[in-house]
Design brief:
Elements lengths: L8 H22 L5 H12 L4 E5 L1 H16 L4 E3 L2 H4 L12 E6 L5 H13 L2 E6 L5 H5 L2 E4 L15 H21 L3 H6 L3
Parallel strand pairs: 1-2, 1-3, 3-4, 4-5
Helix pairs in contact: 1-7, 2-7, 3-7
Length: 194
């Protein structure tokens, strides 16, 4: 049995600090990219008579669940639809009146891409949140929200970290902008929380 590596507290703090700096830089770079497409996405949700159906696989799916929950708790009807389950009947939860918010950093998730053509045939408005403007997801979308990051905070630049931070923040920006578009309704939030 080998001995565990020696713990280096200073190195742990340095790595943690660097991760926070990378994520902060990714967020700082996001704000200037909000523009007409973000406004169009907000307008599409406000104009919809349906719900926001949020979709995403893996870590983007976890972020998507949080966005859906926050939308619903602040007065925008929303639900999360798992893309893999959508191919096995759950796509029936999405109606032509709904808006789909699809999250994928690469924009090439097989499970998500499998349902995009069906959503297009239904006439559903698709808002993509992706790090790649040239991706399959972006090509299927009516509106593309740019969630690209220069690098991940992971030392190997592999594990989603800065990209999921940006997705989460962009989702919150969407929620806040929708609240502003609907007017302040603190009563709704109070009514749906104990």
């Amino acid at each position: 049995m080998s001995n565990p590596p020696q713990f280096d507290a200073a190195r742990a703090v340095q790595i943690g600090s660097q991760a926070l700096q990378i994520e902060a830089s990714a967020l700082a770079a996001l704000s200037p990219r909000l523009g007409e497409t973000f406004a169009q996405a907000v307008q599409a949700v406000l104009a919809s008579s349906g719900r926001v159906a949020v979709m995403g696989m893996g870590k983007s799916g976890h972020v998507g669940r949080k966005i859906a929950a926050t939308l619903a708790s602040t007065g925008t009807p929303a639900l999360f639809v798992h893309p893999a389950e959508a191919s096995h009947g759950d796509l029936g939860m999405v109606t032509p009146q709904d808006v789909v918010l699809a999250l994928s950093n690469s924009g090439e998730s097989d499970e998500l891409n499998a349902v995009l053509p069906v959503l297009k045939r239904l006439g559903v408005v698709i808002i993509a949140m992706t790090g790649r403007a040239d991706s399959s997801l972006a090509r299927h979308a009516n509106h593309v929200l740019d969630s690209a990051v220069a690098e991940e905070a992971c030392p190997l630049n592999l594990a989603p970290s800065a990209s999921t931070t940006v997705q989460t923040a962009l989702g919150r920006a969407l929620v806040v902008a929708l609240r502003g578009g609907l007017g302040s309704k603190a009563g709704y939030f109070a009514r749906s929380h104990r």
